[in-house]
Design brief:
11 helices, 2 domains, elongated, alpha/beta, 12% strand
């Protein structure tokens, strides 16, 4: 366990290896300032250049950061996956992720790392909603809080900011939580897997600055849709009988009711009501497909869990 490892390291006088990981896309105007500040609090900085067309990679390399390069833009989740992998490869005891656009203040890195290094948590989220006064615009606050409610329902966690990219991770978290989602849904995927692996998730208050030149590069509607779709996907895997089985059963019952109605009409008039039969058929087929999906997913997930 990380906690016992860190205690042993302290007794032996060994300093834990702390790595800052920064996903970046066309951040040539801000990456230098972020790197210079971050290096004061960590032992190593790794930047994932996710297909930038500017000098982001060259500036990061010139300032001593290790740069992982994607030949094309693959998405936020893909950049995180590369960073998780590299942090694990170098033997990081703790990793902190932050954006390269200057929204996250590197001076708050120790606040994220303290629960990790003390063994109190495996994942620490820097929440913008735990501070009394923040810069979060009203529309963004509403969107993030909506997504957070969905994520909390899906994962069973109680957090206030499921979309914060300013996070700390323990050595165990690096091993267990490397995301597979390519896009922004990686943020909630990580939380879902943390809950599934019974890792300790904690939040600390941080401030996020929106007075940067390019605070977001993605359409907010697409961003929200990507995150919600990813969250529902992971929820369906964890609870297939609930997400697919219950609607499937309801659809089958609806089909039975309409078949009964169609038979009553036929008995009274000796004619089939096409509309009623079509609804009965469609509801029955939909219900059977959903029930089949629920059972198959339930069996497959059960087999995967038993094989671990």
């Amino acid at each position: 366990m990380l906690k016992s490892r860190l205690r042993f390291a302290r007794r032996a006088g060994i300093k834990p290896l702390i790595v800052a990981c920064i996903p970046a896309l066309n951040e040539e105007r801000t990456i230098a300032r972020v790197l210079i500040k971050a290096r004061k609090y960590v032992d190593k900085v790794v930047v994932c250049d996710d297909g930038s067309s500017d000098l982001t990679a060259e500036i990061a390399e010139g300032l001593g950061a290790e740069v992982l390069k994607h030949s094309r833009n693959m998405g936020y989740g893909a950049a995180l996956a590369s960073l998780f992998r590299r942090a694990e490869e170098v033997g990081a005891d703790a990793m902190v992720t932050m954006d390269g656009d200057g929204q996250h203040d590197p001076e708050q890195v120790p606040r994220l790392l303290e629960p990790i290094l003390s063994g109190e948590a495996d994942v620490v989220i820097g929440s913008r909603f735990l501070v009394e006064e923040g810069e979060t615009p009203a529309y963004r606050r509403a969107g993030v809080q909506m997504i957070t409610r969905i994520a909390c329902k899906a994962t069973g966690l109680r957090v206030s900011d499921a979309q914060s990219g300013f996070r700390g991770y323990s050595r165990d978290a690096l091993r267990l939580l490397r995301p597979t989602e390519m896009g922004m849904g990686a943020s909630t995927e990580i939380l879902a897997r943390a809950a599934e692996n019974k890792l300790v998730v904690k939040e600390v208050p941080v401030t996020i600055s929106y007075g940067v030149e390019r605070p977001s590069k993605m359409n907010p509607v697409y961003h929200a849709g990507d995150v919600v779709a990813s969250t529902l996907k992971h929820y369906s895997v964890r609870h297939p009988l609930l997400l697919y089985g219950v609607p499937g059963l309801a659809a089958v019952v609806t089909g039975v009711i309409f078949w009964g109605w169609a038979l009553q009409v036929f008995a009274a008039t000796r004619q089939l009501s096409t509309n009623i039969v079509l609804v009965a058929f469609a509801a029955s087929m939909l219900g059977l497909m959903l029930l089949t999906t629920a059972i198959l997913l339930y069996v497959i997930v059960g087999l995967i869990r038993e094989s671990r």
